Amino acid sequence: MTISSRTLTAADGTLNVHTGVTGRASKMGHRLTIAFRDWSVTVDESEGAPTAVSVRVRVDSMEVVSGEGGVTPMFGPEKMLARSNALGTLDASDHPEIRYDATTVESTKDGYRLDGTLTIHGVTREHTVDLAVSTSDGTTHVAFDAVVRQTDFGVKPYSQLLGSMKVVDDVDVSFSASIS
Description:
The chain is mainly beta. The chain has a single domain (3-179), classed as Lipid/polyisoprenoid-binding, YceI-like (Lipocalin). 8% of the residues lie in helices and 61% in strands. It has one helix and 14 strands, in the order E-E-E-E-E-E-E-H-E-E-E-E-E-E-E. The chain has one helix at residues 76-89, and strands at 3-9, 13-18, 21-22, 30-36, 39-46, 49-58, 62-69, 97-107, 111-120, 123-136, 139-149, 159-160, 165-167, 170-179. The chain has an eleven-stranded antiparallel β-sheet, with helices on one face. A three-stranded antiparallel β-sheet has the order 3-13-12, with no helix packed on it. Residues 7-180 form the Lipid/polyisoprenoid-binding YceI-like domain.
């Protein structure tokens, strides 16, 4: 039995969070795309198949890439303010890392189902991820889209105007990477 390990980083792909806005004044808010610039995925393999997956994300590596909607376009200063608000919401100084550890990896028709634990804001919960895998021209592409409910991890979604505008509790997480 051959056991090996492979590590992917932000140089190999993207890890993004997409937020929504709700409330009476939601038209004023931006729907954000936030990219994490410092992350790693370590995959343990046996006989060419994954057996465990470990993900580490540095929270303060987030960058607000874009903000759709809102009353005005989102430029540099507004992006920096949104980043600051997100770091505060996540208590990044106290909880600098997001972790996912999958100890059960099952083959599926389109890739793999990962069962493990997700830790955000110091709270750990069971979480399942369906990873799509495809190959073209000798390159393997892996991707997933998942929904994470902030309040499940003790995170109070950002709000302003006395709650008339707030970030939706469910955020969409997307990941994609290519392996040569």
